[in-house]
Amino acid sequence: ALAESCATGRPLVVMNAPFDLTLLDRELKRHRASSLAGYLDGVPMRVVDPRVLDKHLDRYRKGRRTLTDLCASYEVVLDGAHDAAADATASLELVRAVCRRFSTRLERLSPSELHALQATWHAAQARGLEAWFAKSGTPERV
Predict the structure, then answer these.
(1) Which terminus of the chain has a lower count of CB atoms within 10 Å, N or C?
(2) What is the DSSP letter of 12?
(3) Quick one: how many helices (H) and strands (E) in the chain?
(4) Whole-angstrom Cα distance, residue 5 to residue 18?
(5) Which residues belong to any copy of the Exonuclease domain (predicted)?
(6) DSSP element (H, E) containing 2
(7) 89 Cβ neighbours under 8 A, 6+ residues apart
(8) Whole-prediction pTM value?
């Protein structure tokens, strides 16, 4: 179903995508002997991650960026946190809320362009976190 959805060009909304998609890839390899890329069979995946978007677009906002915290910040209802359907629905509504708040910066981007930008933003965010860990005396690889 995921490959078919991606084949339509429709973006996939994933909260904390770097973690969840890596986990999905490893579990597919472990249980099905194929990677996520193998299941997609060359079909591009366009991901929209509300956590990456918020962290880049509202970078100076203090506070955590969990689904619960982001929903509160963007006034999105999260009914039953940690329930797959509730989390997925809230993630979609969260992306909509982030896009409304930052519409002037996002409205002209295609899903492919937004996906590519998010990959760049996430990499920069990871480097920044690694630098912070190094300054704190606990070097970590993110």
Answers:
(1) N
(2) E
(3) 8, 2
(4) 19
(5) 6-94
(6) helix 2-7
(7) 79
(8) 0.90
**Residue 6 and residue 20: Cα distance in Å, rounded?**
16
Positive or negative: CA dihedral 14, 15, 17, 22: negative
What is the CB neighbour count within 10 angstroms for residue 70? 26
How confident is the model over 50-60, as a mean pLDDT? Answer: 97
Angle between helix axes 111-135 and 50-57 (nearest 10 degrees) is 70
| Residue 48, C-beta contacts closer than 8 angstroms, at least 6 positions apart | 11, 12, 13, 14, 95, 111, 114, 115, 118
74 neighbors 94 (Cβ within 8 angstroms): yes
Could you tell me the residue ranges of all domains in the chain? 2-135
What is the chain's percent helix, strand, coil content, to nearest 5?
65, 5, 35
Residues constituting the chain: 142
50 within 8 A of 70, measured Cβ to Cβ: yes
Q: Is 80 helix (H, G, I), strand (E, B) or coil?
A: coil
In sequence order, which residues have a C-beta less than 8 Å from that of residue 105 and are 6 or more positions away?
57
